[in-house]
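User: what does the whole thing look like in 3D?
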Amino acid sequence: MLRENGFGSGPTSGGKTNGAPVNGDPPIRIGVYVCHCGTNIARTVDVERVTEKAGELPGVTIARDYKYMCSDPGQELIKEDIEELGLNRIVVASCSPNLHEGTFRGATAAGGLNPFFFQMVNIREHASWVHEDRESATDKAIDLVRAAVRRVHHHKALETRRVPIKPEVLVVGGGIAGISAALTLADGGKHVYLIEREASIGGHMAQFDKTFPTLDCAACILTPKMTQVRNHPNITLMTMTEVVKVDGFVGSYEVTVKHRPRFIDVSLCVGCQQCIDACVYKRGKFEDEFDAGLSMRKPIYLPNAQAVPQVVLIDPEQCIQFSSGKCKQTCVEACDRDAIFFDQEERIETLDVGAIIMATGFQTFDARRSPHYGYGIYPNVYTALEVERLVNASGPTGGEIVLRDGEKPTAVGIVHCVGSRNQKSNPWCSKVCCMYSLKLAHLIKEKTDAEVYNFYIDMRTPGKGFEEFYQRVASEGTHLIRGKVASVYQQADGDGELLVDVEDTLAGMVRRIPVDMLVLAVGLEPRYDAEEVRRTFNITCSGDGWFMERHPKLAPVDTFTDGVYLAGCCQGPKDIPETVAQAGAAAGQALALIGRGYMELEPNTAQVIAEDCSGCKTCIPLCPYQAILHDDAENRAEINEVLCKGCGVCVAACPSGSIVQNLFEDTEIYEEIEGVLAYA
Amino acid sequence: MLEQADSTVQAPQADLTSQTSAEDFEPRIVALFCNWCTYMAADLAGTSRMRYAPNVRVVRVMCSGRIDPQFVMHAFARGADGVLIGGCHPGDCHYQEGNYKALRRFRLLRRVIESLGIERERLRLEWISASEADRLRKVADEMAADIRALGPLQLSIPAEEFRNAEGAGAEIPSPEIAGETAAKEVAVP
Amino acid sequence: MKKLAYYPGCSLSGTGRAYDESLRAVFAALGEPLEELDDWNCCGATSYMSIDKGKAYALASRNLALAEREDADLLTPCNACYLVLEKTRRHLAESAEMGGRVRHALDAVGLGYAGVVRARHPLEVLTQDIGVERLKEAVKEPLKGLKIAPYYGCQIVRPYATFDDQYHPQTMDQLLKATGAKVVEYPFKTRCCGASQTGTLPEVGLHLVYRLLNEAKARGADVLAVICSLCHFNLDVYQSKVRREYDLEPIPILYFSQILGLALGVPAKKLGIDRCVVSATPVLERRAAHAA
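Assistant: Here's the predicted 3D structure for the full assembly of 1161 residues, as C-alpha cells:
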C-alpha cells in the first residue's frame, strides 16, 4: 500500500565510504579545500579545525584551508593537487554552489578530472553568515563537509547535455526598457518579437516632459527609438498583446500570446485621424489615459500624438456601436482606407523563441491610499504624473501649468516620498522621486514663477550630475523643507487654497504653509498583476513584489529560470539611464546565449535500470514532461533523456527502486544524510 | 543474523541518548530543501546575514518531489531529532507540481512516523520561496525550539527494527554492512 | 450578524446619558433593540493602564469574558472603552505571558476567555451590519437643510484603524448623509479635542477646543456631531469658557446617534437633546421651520 507513494529502494549501504575501492575502481583519493573567504567564513567558522577534521575522514588524501578558494591561486591549488597527489575527488567548502559551483567544476576539469567528481559545501551562506556562535557554526561546517566527503565517494563521471537555442527573442513590454533591449538584439541580427499590452509603445517615459538632471526632452530622445522599432526589419511589433501561457524551456520556449482586438486593421490605417473627427461624439467624453485623465477623448482615438504604431483604436466599452449596435458609423464612412472592422476578434498566436526579456515596468502608487494628502478629495492636489502632463507641451494644457479653474498657481507644494519609505504603504525608496520632484520644482518655477516648496524626508541624489542639479534648484529659490507633511486640508473660506501642515526639522518648528497647488511625488510599485505574470513565466518575486534577479550582485538581469532575463523597473525602481543600461545587459545576456547556440544543462537526468523495472507504470503519470514511456514489448519504463528535466519525482516514486537520477543518486543522498548526522 | 546485528546497531543509539543530557540537548535537524525555492531562501538568509538556530543541516535536492520518504525514515534511524522538508509554494514548483507529490508523501509519512512513536512535530513540511529568507529563519528557529522542548528522539522500538520498518518490503541492507556502518560511527572520535 | 452585548461603560451612565438614551432609541427604531451586558465592569480607561498593566488587562478582559460566555460581541459606544477593549484583545492574542496571567485571574472568578470577542463601535455596526440602505429606508423625518460637521476624535482610528480610514474616516459621514442632512467638509475630524488637558492645561485644552469649533463654524456647520462622551463634554461644556477667551459663535454639539434618532422620528425628549449645555433646540427648530 505504501509503495505507490514512494516507499522505494532502501539505502544501498553506508559501507563503501571508507576509501576502499568501489567495484575494483582505483582507490578514492579526495582533496578537501576549506575557504576562509577573507574573513567572511573564517570569522565565525574555525576553518583550521574544519580542515583538520576533514583530513581525518576516510578517503581524504589532503585537506587544506585557503584564503580565497575562488581566486586563481586557489583554483591552481586544486589543479596541482590533482596532478601531484593523484586526487580523483574534490570537495570545496566555501560559498553557495549557486555562486561558484561552476568555478570549481572548471578547476576540477582543468586538473584533468571529470568535473562531476566535485562536490561543493556551503559553509558561508548556510553557516558563517547565519550563526554567531563560533563553536556551533564550526560544528555545522564540519558536519556539512563530512556529508560532502561521504557523498563524493559515489560520484560518477558525467557529461553535460547540450540543448540548442532558437535565435528568436521575445521582449515583453514596450517601455524604454523593452525598446532598448529589442533594438540591441535586432541590431545584433536577432529576430525580436516585441509585445506591448497597450495600443502604443513608449511606456511611462512617453508621458514625461523633461528628464532629470539634464532636462532633455523625453519625447525628443524617445520618439526616434520608437520609430526605429517600427522600421527595424528584425523586430515584429505586436501591440495590444499579452502573454497568456509559456511552455517549454530555455532555448525553445513556446509562448502563447493573445492579441486584443483594436477594431482597426493596423496594416490599412495610416493615422490620418479623420475617423476621430467624424465620430458621433462631437467632443471628447472619456478620460484620456495618456494624459492621466486630465483631458477627454472620444471612443475612437489615437493613443497619443507620437504613438507607434500610428494607428487609432476603438474602446468597445465606450463606443455606441458596441453598446447599442445602432451607431451611424460616421467613422466608417470617413475612413478612406476601409480600415475599421467592428467584428474584429481576439486572436491567439504561438511564438517560438529561445529567450525572453521581461520589461513589464511599474505602476505609480495610488495617492488615494494616503488620504491625508487629500488626493481625490481636493481638486488641486495632483500626482506628479499628472503634472508631467501639464508641463508637457503636447499635454492637455499645451504646457501651461494651470489649476483646474485655469488660473496659474502662485504657490506650489511638492510632497516627496508619497507611498514610499512608509511601513503603511511601501517600505522602499522609489529612487527617482527626489530627482523628478526637483525637476518639477524647476519647471514649475520656470513656467509660473510660483513659490515652490519641496517637502522631503531625505534628499537622495546619488547619480551623475544629480547633486549638482539639486544645488541648482536650491539656488533658484525653491524652498526645501525637510520634514514630513502631516496633513493637507482646504481653507474653509479660501478659494480652494490648501493648507499644508508640516514639520520643518531644520528650523525646528511646525509650519502651516498655504499653497494653491499640491503635487504628490508618488512612488513606484510593482504592477498590479506582477504576481500573475511571474507565475506565467515561472520566475520569482522578491518579498516586496518586484521580479527577483538571480543574484543581486553577479546576475542582476538573470532570473532563476534559464533564458528569462529582466530589464527595467519590473525588477525594482530605476531611472532612465539605469533602465537602458539594464536593458542592454539583458539583451547582451540573451545574445550570449543565442550566440553560443546551445545551453549546457546539468546532467541530472533520470534513467531506468531496465532489469529492475517491473513495468508497473507508477512513474509514467507523475512526469510533468511526459518524458517516461512504457515499452510494451519489454514491459518496462523508458525515460527520454532529452525531455527529462531532472526533478527526480519518478525516482522517489519508483516502488522497485529501478530509477536512478544522476548527481542525486539515492546512495549519494543517503550518504549526505548520514554524513550530517554522524556528529564527531 | 538480524539478532546479531541488533546488538551492534543499538550501541550508537544508547550512546547518543546517554551523551545528551536534557539541559544541553541540541536537536539535530536534517533539512531536505529543493534547489529552486527553499535552498535559495537559505542562501538569501545568508546574504541578508539573518541569524537562526544552527541545528539545521541542509541537504539539497532538485525538487521536493525527489524526496523519497525513506530519506526521512533514514534520517530518523540515523539519529536525526527532526526532519524539515522545504519546497516551493503550491503553483510555484520549478517542475510544475513536484511539491504536490511531496505534500502527498508528507501527509502519509506523518501518519507512519506517528504510528512508530515519533512525535509529529519532528517532521515538518514548509513552502518557502526564494525570497522568504525571513520565513526560513522563523521556521528553523521554531523547529529547533519545538524539538528542544520535546527532547532527543527516543525510538520506542529497537533501531534495527525501525530500520526494517523503514525499508519495509524493499531490499534490506545486509546486517554486516549495517553493522559496519554503525560501528564506524561509534568509532568517530 | 453575531449577537451584540451592549457595553455602555461608565460615562454613558453619567455625563454621556444622552448618548446612551439616543443609541438605545436608534437601535430600537431599527428593530435591533440593545441588550445590555449583565454585570459589566469598568474598562480601566487610560488611568489604570498606565499604573498596572496586568490588573488593567484583567479588568478589561472580564468584560470580554462575560461577552464570550454569551457568545456575543461587545457594542462599545465610548471611544475610550473601545480602544481599551480592542487593545486588550490584541495584546492577549499576542502575548502568551500576559494571556496566561489574565486567564489565571479570570479562572479565579469562574470565567474563561478564548479570544473570540471583538469590541465593535456603533459606527461599524450601523454601516456594516445594519447598512446605510436600511437606515435610509427607516428615515421618517429627513433632516434636509441641517449642516453637520462630523467629528470622530482620536481613539476610534488611532492607533488601530479597524473599520475606517485613519486619516479620512467616512462611516459617520455616510450615516449622517443618510438622514438627508448635509455633511460639511471638515478636515479636523480626527484632531485632538483637548481630552483631559481642558482640566490640567486649560490654555492648551481650550485652544484645541476653539480650533475645532471655529473650523466647524467656518465650514458653515449648524451642529457638530460626535461619537465620544469625552469629546462631547469638552466641546459642549467648555464652550462658554472658550468664548471668554476667543471670538466664537455658539455651536451645539450632538451625538451622531441623537441626529440619527431625530431622522428616525424619535421624540427629542427621548434622545436627550435637552441635556446639552449649548442648546440645539433653536438650530433644530429653525431647520424644521425652514424645511416646512
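In plain terms: Chain B touches chain A through 70 residues (CB under 8 Å). Residues 27-156 of chain B form a domain with the Rossmann fold fold (CATH 3.40.50).
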